[in-house]
Amino acid sequence: xxxxxxxxxxxxxxxxxxxxxxxxxxxxxxxxxxxxxxxxxxxxxxxxxxxxxxxxxxxxxxxxxxxxxxxxxxxxxxxxxxxxxxxxxxxxxxxxxxxxxxxxxxxxxxxxxxxxxxxxxxxxxx
Length: 126
Prior knowledge:
- Helix content is 13%, strand content 44%.
- The chain is mostly beta strands.
- It has a single domain, classed as Immunoglobulins (Immunoglobulin-like), CATH 2.60.40.10.
- The N and C termini lie far apart (88 Å).
């Protein structure tokens, strides 16, 4: 009888503390983001379309593009923050130098961290 009491007490304790292991965990993962297109290039501007396709079981609090004259720009470089959440977003880069090659990556940030798309390059018009 004492053994049965211990089993029941243990079950109740685990149930009350939520430690049963029966609940499905929704762990937050990194979001999924892609750079869709680079259009409307001029001598000093470019239009960048990006898409957040998955928020990673969390909430995307920031999305946009990073750019610079070198491979794999990140949030410490030039940044265009254009929104939050899931969907398609448009960034218009301005103040670019003419006839210059730029690298650009889309980014999305949720509580797990920041994820980047592949690096793409374009050259402004002369």
